[in-house]
Amino acid sequence: MQTEPVSAGDFDAAARDAVYRAIFTRRDIRGQFLPCPVPDPVLARLLTAAHHAPSVGFMQPWNFIVIRDAGRKAQIRDLVRQARAEEVRHVADDRQALYRSLKLDGIVEAPVNLCITCDRSRAEGSPLGRWHNPEMDLYSTVCAVQNLWLAARAEGLGLGWVSILDKDALKALLALPAHVTPVAYLCLGYVSDFADRPELESKGWRKRLALDELISAESWAGGGEDALKALIRSA
Amino acid sequence: MQTEPVSAGDFDAAARDAVYRAIFTRRDIRGQFLPCPVPDPVLARLLTAAHHAPSVGFMQPWNFIVIRDAGRKAQIRDLVRQARAEEVRHVADDRQALYRSLKLDGIVEAPVNLCITCDRSRAEGSPLGRWHNPEMDLYSTVCAVQNLWLAARAEGLGLGWVSILDKDALKALLALPAHVTPVAYLCLGYVSDFADRPELESKGWRKRLALDELISAESWAGGGEDALKALIRSA
After folding, report:
1. Do A32 and A57 belong together in one domain?
2. Between A179 and which of A121, A145, A161, A209 could a Cys-Cys bridge form, CB atoms 3.0 to 4.6 Å apart?
3. Cβ of residue A191 closer than 8 Å to a chain B Cβ
4. Tally of domains within chain A
5. How many degrees, rounded to 5, is the angle at CA A18 between CA A12 and CA A23?
6. Contact state of A135 with B138 under an 8 Å Cβ cutoff
């Protein structure tokens, strides 16, 4: 039996750093999309990356709807406008002006939109890891989204996840069957730039939390891991 | 305004390939953990990668519970044993022997276990992207899991997501407050190897689906995207 870890030589420092760079420079894109088309070979690589996400019981519950039609995009943009008008009423009074000033989607500008769905019935009769936690298929689909997002970053493409949407209206518009849930509506395309910080941070919506304060040992709020926290604070 | 995409020169071919390699060679580890410890600087980098996941409304709803205590791990392993005994009763008769033969967690062997939670109340009073889809905070937390998983792969560490668990029992054991949901229970450590294929594929639980059959155009089952599908089939 192999007892030495495979770490050394598998990913060298440059390869490891590239993965971290994709993670740290990934942004949720709203306003920086360019009209240049996304070549099919690039889109094929991104979808393949999504398809290689982990899935509970190797269920692969996802489907990918590729949306390029301007009329279709305009319909979905209208759903987002309506949902924004509903959501803003629930935002604290003193933050409504800021909310209204934010650009929250790039549906029409992005050359490609993707709806990634979850087929809740794909593993019927063979639960593995889902009997107690049936939401695991939805979570697997989210892993596919994040794979695609990081692969897009490495290809120089931006992606934005639009969640201000009435799911039932979206389901009807895309003709999804009852057992299929739209997990993510995504805008994809080349971008003029990737900002240094998340837009909601730079525009003052919320601050980056201190990571060391989100770590505990052995249980919720359990003390300990002081060396780990000190390392994080000093990074 | 910048109108040229940033793609060229941002990630060169080697950097891009490193990201894809992490995505394609990531495995859900159950039986390959080695006892060597995970150094704090490595764990700090992995948690920082998770903390830089996208989150709805920049809510950062996650917390990280680091579990190293053998007694605590044994308690959670016992929860998994009980849950397996419950789940297997719902598996089709002709697959129960295969189910029973699978190693489905490495809780005791992995030097570090992590519970990644979602604080459902962290953005109260300021919904952004969650009024219509309140589950978006759970999905953000899953993005943090996937960031950590890919960073671990690039560090040569394996990770396994254990979902055969009664969530209420886990909540009680880890003393989570009512408004906090355990999204992922993870086993982390160096490994003897990363298998070429997912274990549930090589052991015959399920087959890899054909990606081109999961793609449609403009709507569910909408025809089109023939060039894209042909590229994927020929890859």
Report:
1. yes
2. A121
3. yes
4. 2
5. 130
6. yes
